[in-house]
Amino acid sequence: MKKQRFVAIAGLWIALLGYLGFPMALKNILYLLTGIALLIVGYMLYREKKMLLNKGEAEPKSFRESRPEIQNYTMPEPERRRKPQRIARHEPVREPEPVQSAESSHEQYGQ
């Protein structure tokens, strides 16, 4: 718990560091040291979690479900909706009009 508290305090420290009036050189050094400390604590938290997982605890006990009827609960399959049927609209099929050649169109218009 001390490591999680340190991460929270370091986050607050980083948020406030820009407004505390330190010279730029000192501010850069403080940011660097805080970042290195967060890196070390983050790795320690990762290693702790990995050790817990290797012991067989897949998750912390506070998140384990205590009601037995919920532990093996599976979701029911959703009902499948039927697709709406389309109403067929039959329109009469038109025959394509024949293409007139250039000669027949001249004859039609008298040219």
Structural class: mainly alpha
Helix content: 40-55%
Mean pLDDT: 77
Low-confidence stretches: none
What is the 3D shape? elongated
Strand content: under 5%
Number of helices: 4
Query: What is Rg?
Result: 39 Å
Major sheet summary line: none
| DSSP strand tally | 0
Termini Cα gap: 102 Å
Pattern of helices and strands: HHHH
Q: How does the SSE layout of this entry go?
A:
Blueprint (H helix, E strand, L loop, with lengths): L1 H16 L6 H31 L13 H4 L30 H8 L2
Q: What is this entry, summarized?
A:
The chain has 111 residues and is mainly alpha-helical. It has helices at residues 2-17, 24-54, 68-71, 102-109.
Task: Give an overview in words.
Helix content is about 55%, strand content about 0%. The N and C termini lie far apart (about 100 Å). The protein has helices spanning about 1-15, 25-55, 70, 100-110. It has 4 helices and no strands. It has about 110 residues and is mainly α. Helix 1 packs antiparallel against helix 2 (about 25-55). It is elongated, with a radius of gyration of 39 Å.
